[in-house]
Amino acid sequence: MRSQRGPRSRRGAIALVVIAIVWLGTGLELEGFLNRVDPVRLEPVSSRARTLHETALVADLHADSMLFERDLLERGRHGHVDLPRLREGGVGLQVFAVPTVVPRGANIERTERGVLDMITLAGVAQLSRMAWLDPTGRALHRADQLRRMVRRSDGSLLWIDDRGDLERLLEMRSKGRTVTGVLLAIEGAHAMESDPRGLQTLFEAGYRMIGLAHFFDNDYAGSAHGVERGGLTELGRRTIAEMESRGMVVDLAHLSPTAVEEVLDMTTKPTVFSHGGVRGTCDNARNLSDDQIRRIAASGGVIGIGYWEIAVCGLTPTDVARAIVYVADLVGPDHVALGSDYDGAVTVGFDTTALPAVTQALLDAGLGEGETRGVLGGNVLRVLLQTLPERSGAGRGQEGTR
Questions:
Q1: Measured between alpha carbons, how far is 210 from 200 in angstroms, rounded to an integer?
Q2: DSSP SS3 for 340
Q3: From the CA atom positions of the chain, what is the Rg in Å?
Q4: Which residues contact residue 129 at a Cβ distance below 8 angstroms, ignoring those fewer than 6 apart?
Q5: Residue 1: partners with Cβ closer than 8 Å, 6 or more residues away
Q6: What's the rounded Cα separation, in Å, for the pair 268 and 249?
Q7: What phi, psi does 314 have (nearest 5°)?
Q8: How many CB atoms lie within 10 A of CB 213?
Q9: pLDDT digits over 242-286, tens only?
Q10: Which helix (H) or strand (E) holds 120?
Q11: Helix-strand-coil split of the chain, %, nearest 5
Q12: Which bin fits 309, alpha (ψ -120 to 50), beta or left (φ > 0)?
């Protein structure tokens, strides 16, 4: 999907780029504006909750931290996630998602692809190559950046390509190693630019999870926030089938209701809804209906609950727990997980260091210790072990873990 730009639209885009540079100045100021923490009061964490949290595999299905020009090995002054904060929050597995096109004015009600892309603007403000690359190039650039961080992490990060890597992660953590697995995801199959060969390119780069649509309709599927909001296209259907054969996780987040139904009609492996909320506790176009929750659960999948206002109608761990318990009561606790959307241009009430407070909120809401372990990461682990390739043979990006 390529937009036709006239002289007036080009002048407008250039003007907005200039304004962004003058106003934002640096990438750090940009991220400080977009990824904020509005601190909420956190309840004390009991010894019971802290022990449970420290002995569980905590997994987060979605963070957009690779969108910004931070070295995630260092503790940042802005944003929500980096390696020191993942350690402090006890996170054992982090999915890093890469959006490649975000239209100006993107919103959950109605978004067109349009001419101006906010990632281009952000790239200019951050003096990043992302400003000049096409969507596929952006995806490959971010994958390369994350691999280099893994190599420089001195064994603190482990790249997850396949089930063998997951088993290795569990073994290392069982022996007391402080290591966090990282899994790479794409928001929007438009990153493949409608090229059937694009899936092979992303797979070889290390991507193991894909959501077909992001904020706008594309050549693969309709978006819940798009204009037509249609179902799967023929290209989308072929892509889903090939993803399953390769061992790539299908992410339902941002898909139109019709596309969600059509994906679930054809998939044979569990799917994920990586980040968002449920209409039963926060009713808006971004969140899942009860029927959608039931269908995802019936597929064996999991629903990642986010931490921002649109997802859970609040910013506290109690708001997050309320949505999680709603899903657990509706379809069982095996089908709900954490999906923060950290660093996704959202304001949250706490960063990743405060995740033990979420564990406390889950226990306070009435979940048992086993159920809470599942929500914290066990449910995600089950789905990944059912969907990822047994052995990918990739072996890249692991040098820093030996």
A1: 13
A2: coil
A3: 20
A4: 123, 141
A5: 113, 190, 194, 218, 219
A6: 11
A7: 170, 180
A8: 30
A9: 999 999 999 999 999 999 999 999 999 999 999 999 999 999 999
A10: helix 118-125
A11: 45, 15, 40
A12: alpha
Q: Measure the CA–CA gap between 40 and 184, rounded to whole angstroms.
A: 30
Superfamily of domain 7-392: Metal-dependent hydrolases (3.20.20.140)
**pTM of the full predicted structure?**
0.91
State the Cα–Cα distance between residues 175 and 50, nearest whole angstrom. 19
Q: Where are the alpha helices (DSSP H) in 56-109?
A: 83-89
- Look up residue 334 and give its two tokens: 């095996």
Model confidence at 399, pLDDT cuts 50, 70, 90, reads very low
Comparing 125-129, 320-324, 330-334, 377-381, the range with the smallest average pLDDT is 125-129
C-alpha triplet 301, 303, 304: angle, nearest 5°: 135
Distance between CA atoms of residues 402 and 400, nearest Å: 6
Of all helices (H) and strands (E), which one includes residue 97?
strand 91-99
Coil/strand/helix, residue 92: strand
Asked if residue 63 has pLDDT above 70, the reply is yes
Other residues' Cβ atoms within 10 Å of the Cβ of residue 229: 19
Residue identified by tokens 């899936």 is 199
* Token code pair at residue 312: 């859970």
Cα 209 from Cα 187, distance rounded (Å): 9
> Do residues 278 and 287 lie in contact, with contact meaning Cβ atoms separated by under 8 Å?
yes
User: Domain limits of the chain?
Assistant: 7-392
Distance CA 75, CA 101 (A): 27
- The 10s digit of each residue's pLDDT in 200-238 is 999 999 999 999 999 999 999 999 999 999 999 999 999
Cα–Cα nearest to 76, from 183, 356, 68, 308: 68
Q: How far apart are CA 329 and CA 333, in angstroms?
A: 7
Two structure tokens written together for 130: 């992302």
